[in-house]
Amino acid sequence: MSETNKQSSVVPMAIVATLFFILGFATWLNGSLMPFLQQILQLSPFQASLIIFSFYIAVTFTALPSAMIIRKVGYKNGMALGMATMMVAGLLFIPAAKTQIFALFLFAQLVMGAGQTLLQTAVNPYVVRIGPEESAAARVSIMGILNKGAGVVAPIVFTALILSDFKGFVGKELSQTDIDAMANGLILPYLGMAIFIGILGFAVTKMPLPELIDDDVDEQKPGQVKEALSHPSLALGIVALFVYVAVEVIAGDTIGSFALSLGVEKYSVMTSYTMGCMVLGYFLGILLIPRVLSQQTALTISAVLGCVLTLAIVTGSNETVFISTLFGLKSVLPDTLLLIAVLGFANAIVWPAVWPLALSGLGKLTSVGSGLLVMGIAGGAFGPLFWGLASGGVKSAEAQQMAYIVMLPCYLFILFYAVKGHKMKSWK
Fold first, then answer.
1. HSE-CB of 54 using CA atoms within 13 angstroms
2. Which domain range does residue 428 map to?
């Protein structure tokens, strides 16, 4: 029987793995899209940060409605609806590119974020419940690696399909003809992505995915949220995840804009560096936790490393290339740029470490606590926004470099949570 169950879960897990890769691809494509639109639409850093804000803010508004939709249509149909929404978002990029209206790009991003939220809400439970409970943590880690691995691939694909014909445009004052050509370069790739996601969404409805039945779910009682938030470890954990997602998105999605300000020709692939470091951090986490390091210790190390790297970034020189020389990179990149990428390594352990610490001791309130923790993803909307505001709306590299100081209080809070916050049992 166990062999039969194992075989029956292989196809659903393969489907879920594909969906996690697509989620990661669409999410981390923002790291290339942000500086690209900044270049062709002549946006300030703050305006460019709205591209990321509009994507992540959808989580705040659509998380609860997504859960309601899943209850009505089921998990399998919820996945298909999520991908259908993402397909519509991909198609919206076509009129946005043709008209070059910034508001249309923001609306397309908002719709993409809403579709992602619905797909995430439907697909995440499968990871835990499609196989044995004792191996759920391993499956979560594998899906995380797929998600971040897609973040390595997405900028490379974006650069190959869209920017390969526009070499020498960095640092150059673009004519309207240049701008039109670059904007039109978005049309075929986003059309292709929309068609692919649409076909996959239809295929999911025909695939052998077992429907999950929530026969033990009760209606949430009004007092449960207040009761859950009376636990400091949870309430502070929500804040910790909020600031964590903020710094994760800053490191992953603003690195391209900073590279553009430094005159780096291949600015659109810089997110791949950050995601590569993050995947490395995931692998080390799987190997070391809890065999060598406890979750608390790993979280503490991550926070301290984040603080050190942040200070090194804001005080470093954009002229030195020691790291590129040390590792023999083909592209000679400024140390400050590569230090931002290394933040991916520091960030990798935070999400899986905060969750168990925040939910510890909640008992019957665990499901409510999990729902509240998910809301921390909204930090991704505000991190780049604060970075854009801190830059003063100036396109200079120095202003953008100093703006990374907004990450320091975030890492300090994560450090506080690792050392003391998760241990607090009352507010007194």
1. 21
2. 223-428
